[in-house]
Design goal:
111 residues; 3-stranded antiparallel β-sheet
């Protein structure tokens, strides 16, 4: 699920970019900013709206539930939903990085 990805430039084999375990953590926590750093402007544009939507889901999961749900259910939301949203965001953002490099014609290796 959290594969390491290596991107190689099609004409210059010395130009490589790698996304590993730390990349998934960074993508989960910073979203489109990490995509912009790794994949450039095209990746940022593709990831911005999904990142905003996932951050709104995080805010709703923490803020809204604290007003509506009892404390035991709030704890379950915090333990299950918040990490789940962050894991989903990290996988989704790395997927956008993959698509961006594939669209540019780069070679993608997954291990």
């Amino acid at each position: 699920m959290f594969e390491k990805h290596c991107y190689e430039h099609p004409r210059d084999e010395t130009h490589r970019i790698t996304v590993g375990g730390g990349g998934y953590i960074a993508a989960g926590l910073t979203g489109s900013l990490y995509v912009a750093w790794k994949a450039g402007k095209a990746g940022f544009v593709a990831s911005f709206v999904p990142h905003v939507l996932m951050m709104l889901a995080l805010i709703a999961a923490t803020g809204f539930t604290s007003l509506v749900l009892p404390s035991a259910q709030q704890l379950i939301i915090l333990i299950v939903a918040i990490p789940g949203i962050l894991v989903f965001q990290s996988i989704y953002m790395v997927g956008i990085i993959n698509r961006t490099y594939l669209d540019r014609g780069w070679i993608v290796h997954s291990t």
